[in-house]
Specification:
- By secondary structure, this protein is α/β, with parallel strands linked by helices.
- It folds into 2 domains: about 120 residues, NAD(P)-binding Rossmann-like Domain (Rossmann fold), CATH 3.40.50.720; about 80 residues, Alpha-Beta Plaits.
- The strands form 2 sheets. The protein has a 6-stranded parallel β-sheet with strand order 3-2-1-4-5-6, with helices on both faces. Strands 7-8-11-9-10 form a 5-stranded antiparallel β-sheet, with no helix packed on it.
Length: about 210
Amino acid sequence: MKVIVIGCGRLGINIAREMDQRGNEVVVIDKDALTFENLGKTFRGSTVVGIGFDRDILAKAGVDLADALVAVTSSDEANVVTARIAKFVFRVPKVVARVYDPRKAEIYRRLGIPTISPVTMAGERISEMLSFSQLKTVMTIGSGEVLITEVEMTAPFQGKKMAQLEIPNVAHPISLTRDGKTMMAMPNQQLEMGDVVHLAVVASMTDRIREMLK
């Protein structure tokens, strides 16, 4: 997979390194050539000096062949403009933009641009940590609409069936881990105290899931 990372700050560096280590072809774009030194000597990708929303710069980075592009500069506006060009002009299949302002992030999502708002994600995570909850979010899917959560079964669930954790269009059991072994979740599996179950959950319905797990 070819991935273009716009912005060589801390987040951009982490994304570029991670995608590079996974064997992807990575190209990093930044207006400051000195930032590329922070990618480290083990980085095998390439770099391009320039502005991320400059079409000539994107073309130089090979955007026509890109499978994914992530815009994570310090400017919300630059990230969104870059993402729009990548998505609607160059037809890059996967595009994500970081937007600090949660209100703007929601607006851009409605316009069809997948966005990540660190402020919103941090706020939700802190609130979750401060609240009583057996749910632990281990992954988000899309723009955060669906969560993969982890929950340890307590005594009240001893002997119940996996199917009792299913709520149509809200929650779906994915896997069961017992005694260090993980298996696919099956409706008729009997739960035991200490089992760890992974659920796919609609993010807006997590309160309902917590109530079910009490």
